[in-house]
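yo

u said u wanted the structure for the complex thing, so here. seqs first:
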Amino acid sequence: MDIGTLFGILGCLGLVLGAIMLGGSLLGFVDVPSILIVIGGVILVTFVMFPMKTVFNSFKVGMKTLFAKTPDPTQIIRQIVDLANLARRESLVALEKASVEDEFLKKGVLLVADGTEEGLLRSILETEIAFMRQRHSYGQSIFKAMGNMSPAFGMIGTLIGLINMLGALDDPNNIGPAMAVALLTTFYGAIMANVFFLPMATKLEARSAEEALYMEIIVEGVVSILHGENPRLLQDKLEAFLNPALRAGGN
Amino acid sequence: MDIGTLFGILGCLGLVLGAIMLGGSLLGFVDVPSILIVIGGVILVTFVMFPMKTVFNSFKVGMKTLFAKTPDPTQIIRQIVDLANLARRESLVALEKASVEDEFLKKGVLLVADGTEEGLLRSILETEIAFMRQRHSYGQSIFKAMGNMSPAFGMIGTLIGLINMLGALDDPNNIGPAMAVALLTTFYGAIMANVFFLPMATKLEARSAEEALYMEIIVEGVVSILHGENPRLLQDKLEAFLNPALRAGGN
Amino acid sequence: MDIGTLFGILGCLGLVLGAIMLGGSLLGFVDVPSILIVIGGVILVTFVMFPMKTVFNSFKVGMKTLFAKTPDPTQIIRQIVDLANLARRESLVALEKASVEDEFLKKGVLLVADGTEEGLLRSILETEIAFMRQRHSYGQSIFKAMGNMSPAFGMIGTLIGLINMLGALDDPNNIGPAMAVALLTTFYGAIMANVFFLPMATKLEARSAEEALYMEIIVEGVVSILHGENPRLLQDKLEAFLNPALRAGGN
Amino acid sequence: MDIGTLFGILGCLGLVLGAIMLGGSLLGFVDVPSILIVIGGVILVTFVMFPMKTVFNSFKVGMKTLFAKTPDPTQIIRQIVDLANLARRESLVALEKASVEDEFLKKGVLLVADGTEEGLLRSILETEIAFMRQRHSYGQSIFKAMGNMSPAFGMIGTLIGLINMLGALDDPNNIGPAMAVALLTTFYGAIMANVFFLPMATKLEARSAEEALYMEIIVEGVVSILHGENPRLLQDKLEAFLNPALRAGGN
Amino acid sequence: MDIGTLFGILGCLGLVLGAIMLGGSLLGFVDVPSILIVIGGVILVTFVMFPMKTVFNSFKVGMKTLFAKTPDPTQIIRQIVDLANLARRESLVALEKASVEDEFLKKGVLLVADGTEEGLLRSILETEIAFMRQRHSYGQSIFKAMGNMSPAFGMIGTLIGLINMLGALDDPNNIGPAMAVALLTTFYGAIMANVFFLPMATKLEARSAEEALYMEIIVEGVVSILHGENPRLLQDKLEAFLNPALRAGGN
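structre next:
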């Protein structure tokens, strides 16, 4: 579970709730038809923008990515080094029976155990990375589009409220509350765009880069196992990949 | 018929109608001159932006693409494999009489039956794909331009209404309804942009990519038939093209 | 005369006039100082943005392009084929006396009659196309800049009106008409940007592409004449250039 | 002195002043604190955005470029031809004593007189052009950033005015003038962005292209002098560079 | 300490404070809940947008870069020349004991003393530069995202205030102050975006370029020391790197 995403969203919602209750009551901010038109409108228009099946899948992929725990590259490097030791002690074929949790590493190890030559091995694994990137980038474009549509539907809802109110101006005492309700959809749209969809689209990008780095380490490691490289040198080589992150931390 | 586009548009319109009727009457949202200036203005300005003939064609192409059923790549692969079997059992010339529904596949098959060599075959079919892409991208830019012009003409209409109202402020009771009518064009512009033109432009892009993938499969399949490749291997080879979509689904 | 541009602009203006007169009188929308500040401001700021001489030329070029009749590529192909026949019957030198209306074709034909070799011929004509593109793209950027400046000067005018009005709030009955006048500049700016400058910039792009295609056909035709290619084959070859447009039409 | 920039700016300011005085008095548009917050804020934030020394230099370079007279390429070509004649009559070394006003041409001529070989000559002069472009592009990005910050500080000023006014609503007669003053900063920001910074950034781009062309002509001319090319042919060759501009004029 | 960044920010804040106090009291601009929702919201949403650890690091890196003193390239060149002299007089190994303050130069010098060959030396140092650029560009994108989110959360806060106020319109005397408070969040958001985050993102870019240039000089210098180049020529060679900056100053 990624704490950042959840913590950020819940924190923002908490702040908003606090600000609401400090100046009035939460009841004044709940209006079911307003919620329906903004949330419903954004979801429905997403089906106009993207092919149906893709929307569901990309959404699922996006959610999993956002809330999944970031893979720990140090751990995967240790595991690769263990596998390299195993392959040296016994043989490449022995890798077949090693228990490997990470699916991508497992795929690579099985290919090595099958005696796949380097060119094909790399091409198969790199294709997998490319597909992962494409899925994420598609999911990101869906989140971004929903983030852009949220304020638009907020405005449509507010226009409906304003026009209804202005068209029937009987009781001047009614103007205030009617405008308050009309503004609710703009408020919902702003929250949806700026707390959910747009920030998630941004994180999806960072996550995609992280996961690609993680997979690149696995590719390099698996190829090194195939070549029977020295496990110690292998560790050094793979940790070089970590430098950007580590140095970013240490600097 | 693509259900997503239609379902999304009708759903959005339904939500909007519901929101309108919950807070007032639908009559207050219908104003023929306002409709004329926004819809008419956007259509007329499209003729200033794009050459006339192209507007009609691209619009037609766009509509067909948006509401057409997505081609099923599994089916086309099966058909290509059948054709490959036919070519192996009889001869390439026998393909000429095979009944092929898809126009692009038919063109490819006829070229093979005519004994066209690979280079020319590929070049002819790839040109077709390039033209398809260009048509779609042109149609997309028209939809996008109309989506950008809709709020602009909505604002022009609202400005006309406001200036007229402010210039003749006799009866203060009249301000509300007059402003309601003035806001209608902004409302129409927002609906046109965010429910129709902009989402359609987005889908056109996804559709174009889908159709291009579909056509690429056909090109690869037709070339394989020309080379008399093993139909079984051919199936595997073509299904590799499907992976991105399938994996996006299975992940 | 290109009907689309004129028809679109006049239609939009007609719609706007209709909407104005339906809800008030045209007189309320005419204010000479407001017109001066928006139109004058946009023209003057264009001289700050672009070198003076270039503004005049590009504007002239732009106008000619927008309202000029689209060249008919079928006709030019027929003419090229006629010239190819002439060159075959008599000689390349005979081309010198042929009457050719299109200036670019004439230039190419004279170069062929002078015995220019293919490399130089192509380079001279392609340079001409590049210059044409550059002129159009420059003209387009001027129209776009004017389109972006129009709402800005509209807003400046409205701010002047509002500040003047607010600074001297004596008679509350005066507020309405004064605000109406203040909004006029915003209205003028919106019309200028969305009916004139921005749509024209968009069309200039389409026109530039059309004209470039037309000139490319001429280059290919002239080179073929130089090589004495078969006029029939030449016709086929040049009509291949038309395909994108024709297919866009037929699809 | 470039008349366009000055004429455009003064013209715009004249129009604005006229519009102000037509509807009220100029005094209502002068508010020293408002001027301070917008102009001061934009200047100060520029030091947050760009390194201090660079701001001063780029500003100076920008101003010089904007108001400098456009160099006349015809004149420089004549001068280069004269130098070519001199070099032919006497020798390359004689160039050393020729009086050359343009600094860039002088540098090139001295390098030729020193017997610098073509490769090095070109590399030195092209580096100079690259530096000039970089300086201009940096200056342009400073003007653009100031143009984007001007409306932002205008809005900040207006928000301060509005909040102050709303927080102390005693005398309703005071609302109008207070809002007028609050809007002044928005007005100043709009003028600064749309009359000064953004148009100047646009012109800097055009000027940079003009000056680069001018310098390219000099590079070509100096290299030709080094090779002892025929002065007549040299004139033809250099005037080919002018074509875009001349044709843009003649078309 | 970079004076520009600090001077600009403090100056802007001073101007804003002055403008506030000129027209009212500072107390009217301080509202703790409003501050909490804008600042808190922007910080929390940053954790939704970027991985947690990266936020902290990039922020730290960004701050250090913004307020750090710009390295003086003239000084580093002098130091490199001294090291080159030392290496010539004694030997490359003697470099090991030289006291070098700059960490990047130290790393390079130690590699030279270890006898690293040019290819590897360059690759190690260039990788370091690439990592530095990446860190800065990541930090910049965080600042930019926070700058874009600030007005969004300002608007969310204002919407909450407006809806609360409109929903409970009892005492008309209360409207003014309530709106004043509602506008405060918009004001805070505008200050945060336009005085802090966006200008800092811009400066981070300039700083990154400066630091990269500085490091490039070191790489070139260290490689020259490895080759035992003449220290005098080395000085000339390295000062050529300074030209863009110096000329930008001198022009």
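The CA atoms of residues 36 and 120 of chain B lie 52 Å apart. The helical segments of chain B are 3-23, 32-49, 52-67, 73-89, 103-113, 118-167, 175-226, 231-250.
cya
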